[in-house]
Write a structure and sequence with these properties.
alpha+beta, two-stranded parallel sheet
Length: 92
């Protein structure tokens, strides 16, 4: 019988990712902001590392770090909901 494994991630390990928005058609360069968490899934005596990302907000032109952090806070909340749906516990 398979053993149930409870996954968890520390909230402090959820990171902000600012990436170029390659699908953006604007005149300025645009970026997207996502929240990213790395999960370690037990596999025998090892772990499989997988990354899960929030959907992100895309097409941001001319943002600054403060604005990115505001977007990240929203994306982080979304990612935490996604992890909860997967029964991954977020440890504060």
């Amino acid at each position: 019988m398979p053993k149930h494994v409870f996954l968890r991630v520390r909230e402090s390990e959820i990171k902000m990712k600012v990436v170029p928005d390659e699908d953006h058609d604007g005149t300025e360069e645009a970026v997207g902001v996502q929240a990213v968490a790395v999960l370690e899934i037990p596999f025998g005596r090892d772990f499989i590392r997988t990354t899960i990302k929030s959907p992100g907000l895309w097409g941001i032109e001319g943002g600054d770090d403060k604005y990115y952090r505001e977007i990240f806070a929203e994306e982080k909340a979304t990612l935490i909901e996604m992890l909860d749906g997967l029964t991954v516990r977020v440890v504060r």
